[in-house]
Prior knowledge:
By secondary structure, chain A is an alpha/beta fold. Chain A has helices at 4-15, 19-51, 56-104, 108-112, 116-158, 160-207, 209-214, 218-270, 276-318, 380-387, 410-416, 431-436, 444-453, 457-462, 480-494, 510-524, 559-564, 569-576, 578-582, and strands at residues 338-346, 355-364, 369-374, 395-400, 403-404, 417-420, 498-502, 528-533, 544-549, 552-558.
Amino acid sequence: MIPVRAYFRLFKSYLRPYKRRAWLLAAVLSTTIGLQLANPQLIRVFIDRTLAGDPTSRLVPLAIGFMVIAFSHQLLLVWATYLAEQIGWSATNQLRAELTDHVLHLDMGYHKGTSPGELIERIDGDVTALSNFFSSMIIKVLGNGVLLVGVLVLVWLESWIVGAAIAAFTALTFLGLFRLHGVTVPWQKAIRATSAEMYGFIGEQVDGTEDIEANGATGFMLSRFDGIQRKWLPQIVLGWTGWAMMWSASMALYFLSLMMGFILGSWLFGVGTLTIGSVYLVFRYIEMAHWPIDEIREQLVDLQKAGASIDRVGDLLARESKIADDGKVQLGEGPLRLTFDAVTFSYDDEAGDETVLHEVSFDVAPGRVVGLLGRTGSGKSTMARLVTRLYEPQGGAVLVGGHPTWDIGLQNLRARVAMVTQDVQLFRASVRDNLTFFDDSISDERLMDVIQRLELDEWLASLPRGLDTMLESGSGGLSAGQAQLLAFTRVFLRDPGVVVLDEASSRLDPATEGLIEKAVDHLLENRTAILIAHRLATVARADDIVILEDGRIIEQGERAALMADEDSVFAHLLVAGMEEALA
Amino acid sequence: MTTQRQPGFGRILMRMGRVQPWRYGAALFLWTAIWTMPVLVGFITAHFFDELLAGIESSTVVFVVVATFAYAAGRSVAIFLGMRNHGSLLFRAGATIRRNLLVRIFEMPGAAAVEETPGEIVSRFRDDVEHIVEPFDISVDLTGALVSGTISFVIFWTIDPVITIAIAIPVLVVGIVSTQMGGVIRRYRRAAREATEAITGFLGETFAATQAVKVAGTEGPMLDRFMALNAVRKRMMVRDRTLTEVLHAVFRNTLNIGTGLILLLAAGRLNEGGSTGISLGEFALFVYLLHVVADASYFVGAFIARAKQGSVSVEKITRTMRGEPWTRAFEKTDLWLDSEPPAPELPTSDHPGFESLEVRGLSYTYPGSDNGISDVDLDIRRGEFVVVTGRIGSGKTTLLRTILGLLPADAGLVIWNGEAIDDPASALVPPNAAYTPQVPKLFSMSLRDNLDLGADVSDHLMNESIYIATMRHDVDLMPEGLETLVGPRGVRLSGGQIQRSASARMLTRDPRLLVLDDVSSALDVETEQILWNRLFRARSEVAALVVSHRHAALARADRVVVMEGGRVVAVGPAAELQESSEAFRAIWEGALSATTPG
């Protein structure tokens, strides 16, 4: 079926602002259809008058009238296209924005399982199909549908028998076409699914050329690529076959209509019911009925694709984030208390449902700095993700400023809790946009102030166009260390109350790390902080220490006290290094 | 490299046709038949009308009905055959371009394979390929339309040369005008495509950075930027589509002007006898065939517009294939569409038994900057552990990449077992060498596939590699073990797991030379230490070239290479360098302080 209702249900609110333009479009389109229907009538009159022996002076105005009408019709059609495109793109842009917003707010579990390439396909590919749906729906399907009805009515007026016969055939053809459509939708779905797989694959390959080439895997990757194409070909041939089936159906209608025209035309002319001009008119209208059916049939092929797109967009919008944003609490200024209260957590996804944290409890007073130590996989990074509420614990609660994270407005929570991770994501945009994360409300003055504090001004001065220098995506032409400094700047700009540094400086060599030591000191000043590290030096500035092993806290206390206590794990760590102490 | 003139679409078509001559030939034949057959209906109706005025016999009615049926049945068969052939033809045409492009991307130095964002590359594979295949598709219809149009004009001429000339004039004018508009179409199309690319690029980057965006709470500003990009695209798209419709309208108007002209010229002469008269049947045939001509001119217009667009896309793909001629994208290649390809051939060692790798005077400068490495010498022999160290931006990663051919060296030699190698990128792969970058990438497939990368790895080697890479515990905890799907880019694994998987991946090929960029961001000191211990215990024969600034690695190294500003400033064992190199001391003390909190 043509997914008209699903489409308009999805689109109702997006189309509302363009109501007046839509009416204008309807008016323009109706006029074009009227003009199109009028023209064959002129030819009929022309033939009958000619055969009746009318003088040329009575015929020439008809010919000129024909041309004027035809020309106006085309002009109006251009206007209608312009209007339909305007409305279609405006409305789908709204939908794109909403989808992007929606997807950005979905939980990380969703994002883990979905590649950026796939999301591009959802948000831009599918929605563009919907935009085309709108303009072709209105101009081609609806316009031609009305034209078809007009043709049938006019033929009916000439001779009800011919009209009834052609109407019956047309109805039959459409029935057949819709049947076929139902058959071919799954074919199109399969094609789209393989298409998404292909472009997801390509995106990943291009991202990993270094790994692929240096490990001699290009042959393997090509054979996987061939495998996707091999799956795709029969699907596509089937899709084309569906197209042929539809075309044949409309061919059948055309044949039946012509047959009616020949048989009834000769009979009705013979008995004198129709003039020769009227018989000709009927044939013209049969031709005219043939075009819109062809157009509608061709559009059906595209609309099938749109049907699948509508389903997927609908599914995506219906997906709810596992992280509900219904907290009301707004956090105050200044450093905030941070509490883990018997927190139990498991990612519970395809990578496994093992419990990562077991009833972890500890408390950080406002302004204190906690060093979180533990081996890889002990759950440190998970704790950082819980504080920023990228995930929700299954048991217990994480409290910021004394409130469970789910009671705090999400936007507010993330404005007040900052996190720097090992991976710094850069955008192909100006340095300014990369630093402010596209937030235009941050003034250059403030930006420069922070840059100076981070001693990045020397680096900035080395850039050809300062803040306006464009970075490349990926590593952005920056070293890992420079990218890290850039990430620090991002945090500085937001002035949070809690800072989580998750191995933030791990890619800095010790010499460069020294460069930002002061800056980090400044960042921690009057803020609550968690420093996650597997390097002991990183936690040197911590007030308290928490040591994690296999998702459990095995020790916590003031750093100074733990250092003094010979039996503490921390003291052992200092002496023996982490491996022995935690093994 | 000379910039080559972009080919016209005619030459591009020839290339594409030559790859599949039979299928393309069949398509030309079938679609010419499909587009020419309607002429028959014109004759049938013309015959009907002439007979009608002359007093029609029922046998004539039967004849026209049967003839029409034969037409419809014949054309339906042609359509079925034509469509199925077309699906295969067009898919293979697109598949050829996609495959050639991917092969080319794999040929380029891995660390600088493409200049575009992944989103833009996806657009190359999807949109640009489609834009090239479209005019190839229409070229078939165009051929059919030209044949049927020519036939129509011949028929016109036999009926009435004056009217024929009168019709030909507007058709020609329209043809010339629309050809002239090609430049404008091309410009509009390009603007629209660039606007789309800006959007897909932005989306790609945004969703690659979802966690960062969320944590920074910057969804709002990101959305504003996205909407601004969308508004630009809307303007471009509406402009482009409206112009296309104008062109279509111009073409359709040839039909209407033509019909009007026939009416004007036929006025008074219709159904007059003699040589100047036109019968009603001939009039009907004229008007009917004008549709055929209009269809033909539609395809001319559509082809011109799409061909321009196709040339733009060929240009883009050529740019992505840096340095290769455009014809490369269209070269005939085995697509393996009918059967599984043979198991990928694993590179075999040209230099069996690793003895030494020497690097002499190696230089590389990043385009458009002063950064890079210059004149680097380095030696590593069997069983040795060589550590490259230095501050951020000193060129450590660049050095590894240039040695391995992942960046194209500007100067210098890479010598393997005493023999200079021309193309390190193809020589320094398993089983000679394997590499783990600083931020390794996994792929959306099972963990096993990610580790063996299609190679036939024995269970023993697989298990040993996993063990050395300290990955055993993780694999055991995964419910599906090695068959676990790691998700796109390996996102279902933690950062440490990805790093360890990549290390295991490197080991499954049992290479003679291991090259590892800094693992410290994902592995803690202890895990890294375990890795080295196990590695040298299990595979004493291998040599390892690693970047590190960790004490454990530096102290263990047979030789430390200290880099500064892209040059080697000191080489030697750590103990020696502590005395002799100030640059090394800075790093050593930094590394040391990392294990003793102060």
